[in-house]
C-alpha cells in the first residue's frame, strides 16, 4: 500500500513540476527531454549486438566517477546510460560518443515509464551509481533483471533521514542484488537500514580512478601567473572569490560556474566588480586565443563559459578553489585538481566528500572561511614551494586510494557471468 501511495504522490509532484522543468531547458533539447522522461522509445531500440547494461548516473560528477568503469564494460556490453541533469547528459554524449553507448534522460519514476524503457532496450542488468534511490526504478527493474548499487555512500545527514523511513526503504534496498560501498562506515549504515550483510561489499571510491586527457590551450603561457581556477562555483561564490582575488597582488582568475545557465549572470557580476579596476582584464574562455593581447593587463579574470573543460583546465593552474564549499551545499569534487598535483583550497562546507578530512589532517589541502580567503590566496601566490609541497602531498594520498573501478568491474562481470542471464 505504501508504494502505491508513493507512486500517487510522485504523479502529483511530477505533474505539478513538469511545465517548469520543461521550459527551463534550452529549446533544442525540450522535445527529446519530454519524450525520454515519458519513455517514448521505439519498441526495440538497438545499441549493440551484445547484451546491454543500463547504467544510471545522475549528473556530471557521477558520469565522471564511473567513466572508466563504463569504458571497461563497453568492451563486452552495449551501454544504456541515463542521467537526470542536462550537463550530465551533455558531458556523457561528449565522453562516450565513440563507444556503444546510448545516452538518455532517466524516465519518470513511474512503473509504466520504467517498463517501457526495459522493454525498449532489454537490458541484462541495471547499475546505479552512488545512492540514487528511485523506488519504482529499483522495484520494477529488479523483478526482471539484477540491480546493482555501486560507489554507494550514505552521509550522516541522509542516514538519519533514511532511518525515519526504514520501513519504506528496507524492501527497496533488499531488492538490489549487490551494494558496493565506498568504505566500512557506509556498510554499517546500510546494514542499519535493514540490508542483508551478504549483499554489501566494500570496494572503495571510483572517484579516485579518474583519467583526464590534457587539453593544451594556445594562450596558456601568455596569461599572468600564478593562475587560480575556481571550479564548479555556485551563487554567490563568484562574487566573494572575485573580491578576494582583486585584493591579491598578481595572477589570473578563471571562474567556472557549476551551471551553464548562470554564465551571463556571473559575467555581469564580475564586470561590475572590476569596472573601476583598469589593471584587471576580463575575457570569456570562448574568446581567448593566442592573438588576443591578454598580456596588456597585469591581472586577468576569465569566465569559463564552456562545458567539459574544467578538469583539464586544472592542469594549468597554480591554485585550485573548490566551489559549493563557501555555501551550505556540501562542496564539489576536489579530486580533478588533486589529480594534477595542485594545491586545493575550499570553504567550510565539504560534507559531500568526507574523505577530504584525511587530506586536511595531512595538511595536503586548506579549508578556510570566506573572511580569510584573500589572505590564504596571497600566501599561496607568494609561496611557490608551499604550493608544490601541498600538491605533491595530496597526490600521494590520492594514489593510495585508487583501484575501486577495477574491483567493481570484476565483481559485476563475475556476478553477471555466474547468473548467466
Structure description:
The chain has two domains: 10-204 and 403-419, 3-Deoxy-D-manno-octulosonic-acid transferase, N-terminal domain (Rossmann fold), CATH 3.40.50.11720; 227-400, Rossmann fold, CATH 3.40.50.2000. Helices cover 43% and strands 16% of the residues. It has 18 helices and 14 strands. The protein has helices at residues 2-23, 27-37, 60-65, 67-74, 86-95, 111-121, 135-142, 156-163, 166-174, 184-192, 237-246, 263-274, 310-313, 335-339, 356-361, 373-382, 384-400, 404-419, and strands at residues 52-56, 78-83, 101-105, 125-129, 147-152, 178-181, 200-202, 227-233, 251-257, 280-284, 299-303, 319-322, 344-346, 365-367. Helix 6 (111-121) packs across helix 7 (135-142) and helix 11 (237-246) packs parallel to helix 12. It is globular.
Key attributes of the depicted protein:
421 residues, alpha/beta, Rossmann fold, 2 domains
Structural class: alpha/beta
Write out the strand line-up for the largest beta sheet, numbering strands in chain order. 3-2-1-4-5-6-7
Helix content: 40-55%
CATH superfamily of the largest domain: 3-Deoxy-D-manno-octulosonic-acid transferase, N-terminal domain
Tell me about the largest β-sheet: 7 strands, parallel
**Mean pLDDT across every amino acid position:** 94
Overall 3D shape: globular
Strand tally: 14
Unreliable spans are: none
Radius of gyration: 23 Å
Q: What is the domain tally? A: 2
Count of helices? Answer: 18
Q: What is the CATH architecture assignment of the largest domain?
A: 3-Layer(aba) Sandwich
Measured distance between first and last alpha carbons: 31 Å
CATH topology of the largest domain: Rossmann fold
Hey, roughly how much beta strand do the residues contain?
15-25%
CATH class of the largest domain: Alpha Beta
Amino acid at each position: 500500500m505504501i508504494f502505491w501511495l508513493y507512486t500517487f504522490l510522485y504523479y502529483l509532484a511530477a505533474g505539478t513540476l513538469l511545465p517548469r522543468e520543461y521550459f527551463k531547458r534550452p529549446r533544442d533539447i525540450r522535445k527529446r527531454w519530454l519524450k525520454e522522461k515519458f519513455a517514448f522509445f521505439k519498441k526495440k531500440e538497438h545499441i549493440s549486438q551484445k547484451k546491454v547494461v543500463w547504467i544510471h548516473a545522475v549528473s556530471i560528477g557521477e558520469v565522471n566517477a564511473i567513466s572508466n568503469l563504463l569504458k571497461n564494460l563497453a568492451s563486452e556490453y552495449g551501454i544504456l546510460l541515463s542521467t537526470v541533469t542536462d550537463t550530465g547528459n551533455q558531458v556523457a554524449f561528449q565522453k562516450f560518443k565513440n563507444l556503444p553507448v546510448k545516452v538518455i534522460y532517466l524516465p519518470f519514476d513511474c512503473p509504466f515509464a520504467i517498463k517501457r524503457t526495459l522493454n525498449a532496450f532489454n537490458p541484462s542488468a541495471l547499475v546505479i551509481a552512488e545512492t540514487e534511490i528511485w523506488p519504482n526504478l529499483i522495484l520494477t527493474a529488479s523483478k526482471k533483471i539484477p540491480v546493482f548499487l555501486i560507489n554507494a555512500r550514505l552521509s550522516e545527514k541522509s542516514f538519519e533521514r533514511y532511518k525515519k523511513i526504514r520501513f519504506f526503504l528496507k524492501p527497496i534496498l533488499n531488492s538490489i542484488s549487490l551494494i558496493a560501498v565506498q568504505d566500512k562506515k557506509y556498510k554499517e549504515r546500510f546494514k542499519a537500514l535493514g540490508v542483508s550483510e551478504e549483499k554489501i561489499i566494500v570496494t572503495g571510491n571510483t572517484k579516485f580512478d579518474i583519467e583526464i586527457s590534457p587539453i593544451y590551450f594556445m594562450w596558456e603561457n601568455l596569461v599572468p601567473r600564478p593562475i587560480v581556477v575556481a571550479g564548479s562555483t555556485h551563487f554567490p561564490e563568484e562574487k566573494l572569490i572575485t573580491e578576494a582575488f582583486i585584493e591579491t597582488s598578481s595572477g589570473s582568475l578563471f571562474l567556472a560556474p557549476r551551471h551553464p545557465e548562470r554564465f551571463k549572470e556571473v559575467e555581469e557580476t564580475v564586470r561590475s566588480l572590476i569596472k573601476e579596476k583598469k589593471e584587471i582584464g576580463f575575457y570569456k574562455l570562448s574568446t581567448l586565443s593566442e592573438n588576443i593581447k591578454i598580456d596588456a593587463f597585469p591581472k586577468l579574470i576569465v569566465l569559463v563559459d564552456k562545458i567539459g573543460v574544467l578538469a583539464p583546465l586544472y592542469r594549468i593552474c597554480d591554485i585550485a578553489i573548490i566551489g559549493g564549499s563557501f555555501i551550505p551545499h556540501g562542496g564539489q569534487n576536489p579530486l580533478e585538481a588533486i589529480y594534477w598535483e595542485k594545491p586545493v583550497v575550499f570553504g567550510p562546507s565539504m560534507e559531500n566528500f568526507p574523505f577530504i578530512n584525511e587530506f586536511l589532517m595531512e595538511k595536503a589541502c586548506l579549508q578556510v572561511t570566506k573572511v580569510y580567503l584573500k589572505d590564504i590566496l596571497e600566501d599561496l601566490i607568494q609561496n611557490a614551494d608551499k604550493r608544490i609541497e601541498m600538491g605533491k602531498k595530496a597526490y600521494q594520498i590520492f594514489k593510495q586510494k585508487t583501484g575501486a573501478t577495477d574491483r567493481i568491474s570484476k565483481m559485476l562481470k563475475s556476478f553477471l557471468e555466474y547468473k548467466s542471464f
